[in-house]
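Anyone up for a design puzzle?
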């Protein structure tokens, strides 16, 4: 079972992709064809089903012109937790109050 925040995020992503498809006046059939997936798979993606491959989500993002955001999700330069851990290793006293 997925943690609630993870399930919620997948559900929101699926809903957002569904809205994007509908705003572009794409039917399930036409969007599924462009994504090279079946209609049931597209439906699962739009429901945020965790069994759907990340490649399918990536294809949908590409088709709506939002693929660039996928690579930014885990950008190491924006990973504040890792940065704080590195700073603590370098100087534990200096970062004590940053928590």
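Challenge accepted. My sequence:
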């Amino acid at each position: 079972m997925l943690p609630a925040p993870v399930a919620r995020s997948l559900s929101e992503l699926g809903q957002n992709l569904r809205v994007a498809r509908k705003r572009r006046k794409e039917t399930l059939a036409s969007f599924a064809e462009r994504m090279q997936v079946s209609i049931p798979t597209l439906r699962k993606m739009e429901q945020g089903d965790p069994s759907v491959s990340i490649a399918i989500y990536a294809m949908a993002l590409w088709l709506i012109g939002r693929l660039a955001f996928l690579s930014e999700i885990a950008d190491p330069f924006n990973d504040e937790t890792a940065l704080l851990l590195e700073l603590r290793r370098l100087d534990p006293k200096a970062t004590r109050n940053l928590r």
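A detail worth pointing out: The first helix runs from residue 4 to 23.
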